[in-house]
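Hi there,

I know you've been waiting on this one. I reran it after we fixed the sequence typo, so this is the corrected version. Both the input and the resulting structure follow.
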Amino acid sequence: MEGLLAAVVALLSLWFTLAFLLIVLPSIFGLSLGISELYIRILVKTLEWATRRIQREIREQQIEIQKIPSSNVIIQRDLTTMEQAIAGLRRGDFELSDAFYYCKKGLEAIVEDEVTQRFTSEELVSWNLLTRTNVNFHYISLRLTVVWVIGVFVRYCLLLPLRVCLATIGILSMIVGTTLVGKLPNSEIKNRLSDVVHLTCSRILVRALSGTIYYHNKENKPQKGGICVANHTSPIDVIILTNDGCYAMVGQAHGGLMGVIQRSTVKACPHVWFERSEMKDRHLVTKRLREHIADRNKLPILIFPEGTCINNTSVMMFKKGSFEIGGTIYPVAIKYDPQFGDAFWNSSKYGIVSYLLRIMTSWAIVCNVWYLPPMTREEGEDAVHFANRVKSAIALQGGLTELSWDGGLKRDKVKKSFKEEEQKNYSKMIIGNGSSSLESTSTD
């Protein structure tokens, strides 16, 4: 019994030593031994083999292959404005047929609206050996099932313990490191040490996700005194960006483990965490942000203007607050590769622990990050139009669908003011057509 226990201890010691030498230590110096790249190449080959196997089995069973759409789109919408749609239905003043347009739009929304489908996981074209990513998968062959079972063993029995270990090291290092750095007096040395702690811990956490990140156009990286805005898919967006540079983050103050991390990091870096009471006072938050960007020696601020996580297909409305405070905006587009894992966090369905478990039991996290050229507010341009211009640039670069809807609809109902706006637009059409009709009658 003692011999078995000693063997287990020796095996664990060897395992932790290899993890430290091959993963943690290279992360500290920002080096890569090529293990992640090799792992991704093996994954790609395996998934390609699985796809070919599925297609061959289907051909052998003489089943007609139908192309599966890349998203769960049921309705093909006619992208016309309300004026154009109603103009083809009505002649003259109000008619009962005017209601057809709203009946059609209402039925479309009941069956499938373009907002709520952005808060569900992206459906893949081909199966990636993760049962939770494709509802169309069914039993194909024994060989493919065996490969899936092996994949389950690798992900849960080999990768998961390693990833949990690395995540623990990264989080503890972040808390301890920033707390110690925070005790130093404000100086250039403190700022440099804070950057080292943030970069090192972020790199360890990226390794904990088996992350492979491709950064493009690094000449456009956010500079000090600027504001970095990006589309938001997951809480790990912060780690993805911090892996390549340091930021001062803006966000809601949390409790629990997240709160401990926030309170420790703010001691070493000028992050802006605000309470719920401060959210109601936009002027107070705006003042704190203006004071931050006024100091050209402070790190660029990282903001996610959507205010909530959107699945990896779209960009929704950017709230204008981030674009009212002035300064240079550095847009960043983030696009995850769903072939290796679903990075989207559906916060209304999964807690943070459940979400992290799903992430850590995926194959890997692979994404592309594009640094876009800096943008400034043009003369005479209001904050809303500026926000929409930045959003369009991010959507275009990331290959994402651009939507004008507020991401807050993930939890809240449509605002009354929005309904009233639609009613006003319709009434203006009626009044305008009615007045024109009366003028023509009086002329005759």
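Quick highlight: The longest strand covers residues 329-336.

Best,
R. S.
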